[in-house]
Amino acid sequence: MASNTLNAAVLGSGLLGLDLVERMQNSPYLNCGLVVGRTARSRGLIQAAELGCATAPGGVTALLDSGQRFDIVFDATNAFEHPDHWARFAGTGTVLIDLTPTSAGALIAPTVNGDQAARHQHIGLVSCGGQASLPVLHALAQHYRPRYVEMVATAASVSVGRASRLNLDEYVETTQDAIRQFTATGVAKAMLNISAAAPPPPFRVAMTMVAPGVEQGPVRSVVEAAAAAMRTVVPGYRITSCTVSGDTARVIAEVTATRNRMPVHAGNLEVISAAAIYAAEQHALVKTPALKEIAR
């Protein structure tokens, strides 16, 4: 491990965990010290080892018993196990970045409040729907006072794993809380559709905001600026529809996965993986002064 990088571990060996490994291998700021899964012969651990990363079965206990000191731990498991993981790392100095839909950590979305990531040891990434919709909704809320905000995410069934299906209630609650927090609206609703269509559809978020004074031209300008900022983090992010009728603005965004390991329809995974690495690199830039020179 280079002395000017932060040592990181991944809890979870699914497709999301493997994408984190590849992103770290391409990062000048992060080193993947360990990937932990449940069982030794899991396909994810085998693939992580093929990528050159140390692996171990046994979950969080194996990570804590590894003998390594981790600056960053990415939790790509599930919302039920995350509170225990945080309890084990709280007070250790390790930054825990939560890719599960819990609301325990400080909620971070890169183009909204990513500059605040380095202030927090416990970071939550809301949900894939939250990461895809909050940049637009927050931007609109800087210009209008929303009375109601709604977000409906649609993800391909083949890109939604077992843990995500078990955490649907947490997904909805955490996303709604984040929408209220970042738009200052009193009424927010979030929904997730899991589509079994063939071929699998791209990840899509449909957003509705009811706010006095919305107009087509200004709304489109705000939305397109937010989307352009988002593409600096997630290149496959684009606006496919933006309309205003009366006091209601409706925006649809799609996220196409552009990573080598990700199928194109898995934008839901790509958007949250990108946010996780972004948050980790913000910590790296603050903790290691030499990295600031690299960033320049």
Description of the structure:
- The chain is α/β, with parallel strands linked by helices and 296 residues long.
- The chain has 2 domains: 6-125 and 271-295, NAD(P)-binding Rossmann-like Domain (Rossmann fold), CATH 3.40.50.720; 128-265, Dihydrodipicolinate Reductase, domain 2 (2-Layer Sandwich), CATH 3.30.360.10.
- It has 11 helices and 12 strands.
- It has helices at residues 15-25, 43-50, 59-64, 82-89, 110-113, 128-141, 162-166, 168-183, 216-231, 267-287, 289-295, and strands at residues 6-11, 30-37, 55-57, 72-75, 95-98, 106-107, 122-124, 148-156, 188-195, 203-210, 237-245, 248-255.
- The strands form 2 sheets. Strands 3-2-1-4-5-7-6 form a 7-stranded parallel β-sheet, sandwiched between helices. The protein has a 5-stranded mixed β-sheet with strand order 9-8-10-12-11.
- Helix 6 (128-141) packs across helix 10 (267-287).
- The protein is globular and about 60 Å long.
- The two termini are 22 Å apart.
- The relative contact order is 0.16.
- The mean pLDDT is 94.
Could you give a short description of this structure?
The chain contains eleven helices and twelve strands. By secondary structure, the chain is α/β, with parallel strands linked by helices. Helix 6 (128-141) packs across helix 9 (216-231).
Main features:
39% helix; 296 residues; seven-stranded parallel β-sheet; Dihydrodipicolinate Reductase, domain 2; globular; Rossmann fold; alpha/beta
